[in-house]
Amino acid sequence: MTDSDDRQDEFRPDIPSPARVYNYILGGKDHYPADRVVAENTMAALPSARDAAVENRGFLRRATRYLAAEAGMRQFLDIGTGLPSNGQVHEIVQGVAPESRVVYVDNDPVVLAHGRDMLHGVDGTTIVRHDLRDPDAILGDPQLRRLLDLDRPVALMLVAVLHFVADSEDPYDLVRRLMKPLPPGSHLAISHGTDDGDDEVQQALDENYKTSSSAHVRPRSQVETFFTDLELIEPGVVWTPLWRPDEASSPLRDDPARSVCWAGVARKA
Question: Is the pTM of this model over 0.85?
């Protein structure tokens, strides 16, 4: 689905959206009663949910800064971007290198509306409407092609989105199809929910996290599989608070398993 298919009648505030639920958990303002019910139920079942969301955003910021400042990436493709919050990818990378280009991808009408408003007048950025499950449509999007040169390295950001893809939809193949056309020097950044630290996480999500997309947690070994044939950047696949931590406040630094999320960055040789 492309931007031209973005119809007002598709907006359903009565159906909880993962992006809006996440926004509420983070303390944002862009949510509706149905989203708040799911968020409150989820936080009651998983008391570390809010801290885990904060840690995930921290990983996104640190990984983006690493990719821009240390790996020298100047093109970013952020799929499943969610609602805007402090430290968006384009703000970080263009703070390092103003010429950097960023394409955001999401399929939520509210995310798209806020994203277009946020990016209005910001050179080198755009947001397009597609689903992660259709890599060919994403990589073939005319707006993306105008902004990103796929013959040059691209940083593919899949932060807290792959756990919304069921095994039956083969998330590993989706990642391979997204990475295959990208040239050597491209990078992949992933964070992914897990029940490795608490075997009741999936049950809690099944009972409480009832949104337009179901969540499917995976163990560390399966998250590592997303990076097959790529060179993992140190420290490898670790809990989100432990991926190159900085001096900023980290609510779960001393108990990282409560972040219920693995994270890693890898390079295509």
Answer: yes
pLDDT in tens, 131-170: 999 999 999 999 999 999 999 999 999 999 999 999 999 9
| Tokens linked to 99 | 């010429």
